[in-house]
Each structure stands twice: as structure tokens, then as C-alpha cells.
Amino acid sequence: MLPLSMKRSAIDLEEMASGLNKRKMIQHAVFKELVKLVDPGVKAWTPTKGKQNVIMFVGLQGSGKTTTCSKLAYYYQRKGWKTCLICADTFRAGAFDQLKQNATKARIPFYGSYTEMDPVIIASEGVEKFKNENFEIIIVDTSGRHKQEDSLFEEMLQVANAIQPDNIVYVMDASIGQACEAQAKAFKDKVDVASVIVTKLDGHAKGGGALSAVAATKSPIIFIGTGEHIDDFEPFKTQPFISKLLGMGDIEGLIDKVNELKLDDNEALIEKLKHGQFTLRDMYEQFQNIMKMGPFSQILGMIPGFGTDFMSKGNEQESMARLKKLMTIMDSMNDQELDSTDGAKVFSKQPGRIQRVARGSGVSTRDVQELLTQYTKFAQMVKKMGGIKGLFKGGDMSKNVSQSQMAKLNQQMAKMMDPRVLHHMGGMAGLQSMMRQFQQGAAGNMKGMMGFNNM
Ligand code: GDP
Ligand code: MG
Question: What are the coiled-coil residue ranges (predicted)?
Fold first, then answer.
């Protein structure tokens, strides 16, 4: 059970009366309470530069300890810390090989043994060696447990006593759910867990169990694992995590991704948008950007109300293929068609063009028609946005648009969104501008998020 005790007082009735609907207010209150739950009230441990920081990993077998050890080592190494790994797991066959492989790939010095069977000896030797060599981040991986097995717990305690870690990290799999509280507590009772890392948040699990782990260990979540690769790893951020938990999408993450793309450099597009113009080529370029953004599901998962349900249907590949198909169709268009500010009209005036493009790209004329319909809808929205006076002035949308204008825009977008992927993707340029609005002020502000959630 989640240690969730929602007080009525958390719901501000006056604010409610001011016009926001009940559902939103309750969501807001739940959100605030959940944020409190992942805050154990103690500051997260951080390593000290120039010192030998020893970090020990504990957790159930398969929770992702070995993977996460490597990720953390890699994280600090990239930040310029002198980092190393020690494998003190003699329980699981192949444990040392696994760590060795990860470490070698990332060029991280490591220590372990194929012959020594006592994890306490390996851990002590490794820590001593690396301390002498002035390593700053010394990470010790230990063996996992399927459940609370006394002998293994004892072993964990002995390792901890021998190496006296500065930080003990409890690694938990996001999907473990209900069982989490008891498990986390069992670990905490034995050794002094001070941090939590939640893994496998790239999957369907939202990580609700993490709340229990925080409560049980009184330790903050410091990082999250979002994939099997060494850089699928992020410092923990409360608001996006809770948003995901509530199925509201990760606005901040989306902003980061979009910013990474440096779409801002795309002056020409912004200039056109200002005038409400949007060509087929612009759409093509937006698709290219989306492809560049990498794992599709990651992006989709960040869009409010669009995350987990969609992904659980497992049609990421389908969406990607769809996008590619649309781009193939546009590849068969000529410059005149691509660059017209009313691309659809060029085609409707001379329907022969549709046949030509269909033939050229190996699709049906209906497919081409559909693409043009999507394009038209999007171009219409751009036109509306361009029509809002001064919307893009000074590059900061939030200062230039009133609440009611924003609401209208939202409505407009909402109308356009259908469950089909293209709409969402096509809406990306608009979304980007809206993101900026969130970034300025409203990021982390629930009212903003909720409004957005209505899309
Ligand atoms: P350990 O037994 O605790 O050391 O767990 P491992 O590090 O061996 O991980 C168990 C499995 O989970 C491996 O297949 C990892 O690739 C996988 N894994 C670990 N972290 C993540 C993650 O954040 N996302 C995903 N998708 N898989 C992960
Ligand atoms: Mg392991």
C-alpha cells in the first residue's frame, strides 16, 4: 500500500470556486501529496571531489544492480571523476564477466576475481587498491537476492562492515509494485541504505513502488534507469516522475528533448510560422526532426495523455514506419509542391499530381490524399497561431499571449488531435512553441499541466 494519506485540507476550496473544475483540483492535490511522498526530507548524498567515495549497491537479483553500477560509473566518469567498479558478486555465475564487459566497453577500471569465492575479501581488496590509487568514485556491486535470504543478507552486512561505504544505494525495479515496501525495509533494516535508484522506467511500469521504497528507507531517489544502455540513466526529478505516475507526461523531459534538437536555430521556419505559413516541406523537416529525436516511445511517453496507453499497444514500429511512409510520399513531390504555402491546393487544382506522387512512391492515391488532409489540418493550425497578434514576438510566447488566447489555441489543437500518430507528430512545431510557454513560468505548475493534459 502506498503510504498515502490525503487530507481534505489539501484541496483549496476557494481556488476551486474560482472556476477550475473539481477533477483538476483533486488531481492537483494528489500531485502535491505525491511530490511530498518522494521527498524523504533528507538531502541526497553526493560524492566529495578529491575524496575516495565508496558506493555500495544492494538490491534484489535482477533489479538492475550490475547494469546501474556501470551507468553510475559512466555518469561520473563523463563528468571528470576518477571512477572504478568492483564486482563483489560471487554468487551469480558470470557476474564478474558481466561487470567486466560493461566496464571494458566504457573504459572504466574494474576489479574482481574468478577464483576468490569470498565477496568480503574481493570487496576489501578492491576498495583498498582503488583507494591507494586515488580513485574518487569506487562502486561496489554485490550479489542479488531473490527474496530475503538470511545467508545473503548476512553476506551483504559483512561486505558493508568491511568496506564502510559512504553511500549504500538500494536498486529497485520499477515494476515490483506492492512487494516493494517490505523488500526495501528488509534491506534498510540490515544495512544503512541512503539512496534509491529506480530502474526500468522505460517499460510500462510507472514506478509507484518507488514511493514505498522512499518511505521504507527514508532515502531519496537519486537516479532513474530508462533502458539497457549505459547512458539510459538520468538524475531523478520529482515532478516529471510524479507526472508519469499519474499519466500526465513529462513536460520537462519533452522540453529538454526539443531543446536538444536546437529547433530554435530554425529561424526560417519560425519566421514562416509567424506569418501563419506552413509548407509540405516544413512538415517533412519536422518529421525528420522527430526521427532524429531517437526512441519514439520515449518522446511519446512524455506527451501528456499520450504515454503509456499508446506504448503498451506496442506499435512504436508501426508509427515509425508510418512516418517513414509519409516521408517517402513527400520524397516524390517536386519543389513547387513542397514549397507552396498551400500545398494541398496545388494538388486539388491538378489531381494528376496525386497520381504521379502515388506512382512515384509506390502508394495508393488515397494515401497521398490522406497525407494532404493531415497537412491541411496542421497548416490551418499554424495559420491560427500566426493570426494571434504578436504571438512570436521576442521569441517568448508566454509574454505575448493571453490566457484566453492560449485556451483557444489549446482547443484548436485538441480538435486536431486524433489518435493517429501523425497528428501528434505533425503538431510538434506547435507543441514546441507551447512548450516554451510552459518553460517560462508554467513548467511544474499544475494548472498549466492540467490544461495541457486536455489535449
Ligand atoms: P542485477 O541482478 O541486480 O545485477 O541486475 P542486472 O544489472 O543484471 O539487470 C537485470 C536485467 O535488467 C538485465 O537484462 C538488464 O539489461 C536489465 N536492466 C537493468 N536496468 C534496466 C533499465 O533501466 N531498463 C531496462 N529496460 N532494462 C534494464
Ligand atoms: Mg548483478
Answer: none
Asked whether 227 lines ligand 1 (CB < 6 A), one says yes
The dihedral of CA 338, 340, 342, 345: what is its sign?
negative
**Residue 37: CA atoms inside 13 Å, Cβ hemisphere, count?**
24
102 lines ligand 1 (CB under 6 A): no
Q: Please state the φ and ψ torsions of residue 165, each to the nearest 5 degrees.
A: -65, 150
For residues 250-269, average pLDDT: 56
What does the domain layout of the chain look like in residue ranges? Answer: 53-248, 267-307+315-390
Q: Which three cell numbers stand for residue 12?
A: 483549496
Classified by CATH at the fold level, domain 53-248 comes out as Rossmann fold (3.40.50)
pLDDT at 308: 41
Sheet arrangement for strand 137-142: 110-111, 83-88, 137-142, 53-59, 167-173, 195-199, 221-225, 233-235
Ligand 2 centroid to residue 58 C-alpha, Å? 9
Q: How far apart are the C-alpha atoms of 293 and 260, rounded to whole Å?
A: 9
C-alpha cell at 92: 551469480
CA of 246 to the centre of ligand 2 (A): 31
The CATH number assigned to the domain with range 267-307+315-390 reads 1.10.260.30
User: How many Å apart are CA 433 and CA 406, to the nearest integer?
Assistant: 11
Residue 442 pLDDT level (bands cut at 50, 70, 90):
very low
188 lines ligand 1 (CB under 6 A): no
Biggest CA–CA distance in the chain, Å, is 81
The three cell numbers of residue 75 are: 555518469
For the chain, the distance separating the N- and C-terminal CA atoms, rounded to the nearest angstrom, is 31
Burial class (CB in 10 A: 0-12, 13-18, 19+), 23: exposed
